Amino acid sequence: MPPPADIVKVAIEWPGAYPKLMEIDQKKPLSAIIKEVCDGWSLANHEYFALQHADSSNFYITEKNRNEIKNGTILRLTTSPAQNAHQLHERIQSSSMDAKLEALKDLASLSRDVTFAQEFINLDGISLLTQMVESGTERYQKLQKIMKPCFGDMLSFTLTAFVELMDHGIVSWDTFSVAFIKKIASFVNKSAMDISILQRSLAILESMVLNGHDLYQKVAQEITIGQLIPHLQGTDQEIQTYTIAVINALFLKAPDEKRQEMANILAQKQLRSIILTHVIRAQRAINNEMAHQLYVLQVLTFNLLEDRMMTKMDPQDQAQRDIIFELRRIAFDAESEPNNSSGSMEKRKSMYTRDYKKLGFINHVNPAMDFTQTPPGMLALDNMLYFAKHHQDAYIRIVLENSSREDKHECPFGRSSIELTKMLCEILKVGELVMQVVKEQVMRALTTKPSSLDQFKSKLQNLSYTEILKIRQSERMNQEDFQSRPILELKEKIQPEILELIKQQRLNRLVEGTCFRKLNCRRRQDKFWYCRLSPNHKVLHYGDLEESPQGEVPHDSLQDKLPVADIKAVVTGKDCPHMKEKGALKQNKEVLELAFSILYDSNCQLNFIAPDKHEYCIWTDGLNALLGKDMMSDLTRNDLDTLLSMEIKLRLLDLENIQIPDAPPPIPKEPSNYDFVYDCN
């Protein structure tokens, strides 16, 4: 008999003692369980103790998360979060450098746990850490020459603990002083800084920028894009990732007029070439977080083009028309201009019309009309002018070559540029927001129906960007593989075979038979009857039993028979005669869902109450198959989907030069002993 759902079996560790195997009753208060554990090891003051996971997470067990404990979990009895917080709060203020360093190391590890974090924050721990960063480091820098490793580790652990504590969202980012921001920015601006300190400092700056406009302004005053770019030229991919994340954050929070200025600085600093050389073409794989940050940067920079993409050309704007004149001048500069003599204006118009046709515009008289559609709007004209100025020889060659081609072979520069720009805007999603992944994280977390905010947060944490990528890839592969036309045709071809297989399984189960309980009109009785199908599928044998049988019941012991040919119909649920009787109104919904009846002759019926939903599906499917009707149960649909998927995957396997044996592999011999089996009981 399985144990109650509220009982979980765990192992509990305590330093210097043998682990205890224990059953935890989830209905009991956690404090009572901890007291019971402490009493087992003769430990007083149980309120100073707590339970935590013994794995690498070391998370504390609380009343909120205790339901996540599963059978076989290994727990550890340890100091309570409040006690730990008080002790570490004192230890990190020790005058001993070694003691302080060890305390900060422990704090960095424990701060990942939200229960401990809350206790430490309640002691004003965040303020203590910021003071240590602002003023304490100045004092330690005097000792840096003689104890540089110790100083670096101490600052690294301090910043790590700060980041972990802030990540819980308990304290607002708006509470920090300008002095603290300046200090963090100074760690980033230094050319030679410990990798771990630089990484944490970049993470802090990113969070500050993203968590408020005022913080953005303060950070932007202390650090520039130009100061960040050298960090991309190193070899540490995590530093590169955090650097791009800070650049993205500054882009996101910058006012519209500032963004274009930032983009110009990035172009001047050759950011694209630096990323191409030191990130994309580096001799290492790009991890998923780096790929995400690069994607965000690409979207942000492309979105700067949205304004030009959605701007129509004004045919009366002389500055815009001058761009078209410049395109013509670059392409046909060698040709002589007409003199300002009589009739020169007409000749000029005629020449311009001819040249605009050669340039490939649709409207030869007024090419400005070609740029009134959005997208691509003025962006197409910008691209054409850039190409003409920076790749002048190629531009002239394309225009002149195309002007001498036949119409059916032409590739007009103007029309092609406009269409190409429009196509690229669609492919690169110019103008779209960078929130698709966040939306997907929230939607997928909500579909799991979390019962509390903590469970929702936990689901969001599990649905990282990396996990979302994996899910998308898996879904895309399944969709591509199983929704293509050849696969759908294959499904349609093999589905009858699978349905026949399911039908034979259902009939074989009916031949084995099932024991049913008899249902009285007033209450359920402890009486049984058995029904089974004959091997030739022509007769149903049934009869009463004194008790529930062990195994199959022989045909000759069942007194009654019903020929399958006499069956008129099979009905279920409320349509069953025994569910329409007066007493049946008192039956619960569960009984109603398990009821089915066989109608035969004029007013005769054989009434069933299946022992469970599985047997209900087996019998209704089997009886419908005997009557030549479709099997419509949920079980059949699930079986069909599973077997179809398996069969298709097997047929798509590449089995070339692989010999498939006619017989299954032999079952291995039993082991000589079972000493490797461990019984927790």
From TrEMBL:
Keyword rRNA-binding: no
Keywords from the UniProt entry: Apoptosis, Cytoplasm, Membrane, Phagocytosis, Phosphoprotein, SH3-binding
Coiled coil segments of this chain: none
Subcellular compartments: Cytoplasm; Membrane
InterPro entries xref list: ARM-like (IPR011989), ARM-type_fold (IPR016024), ELMO_ARM (IPR024574), ELMO_dom (IPR006816), ELMO_domain-containing (IPR050868), PH-like_dom_sf (IPR011993), PH_domain (IPR001849)
Lineage top rank: taxon: Eukaryota
CDD domains: PH_ELMO1_CED-12 (cd13359)
Family annotation (PROSITE patterns): ELMO
Membrane-spanning residues: none
Domain ELMO residue range list: 319-499
Function: Involved in cytoskeletal rearrangements required for phagocytosis of apoptotic cells and cell motility. Acts in association with DOCK1 and CRK. Was initially proposed to be required in complex with DOCK1 to activate Rac Rho small GTPases. May enhance the guanine nucleotide exchange factor (GEF) activity of DOCK1.
Name by which UniProt lists this protein: Engulfment and cell motility 1
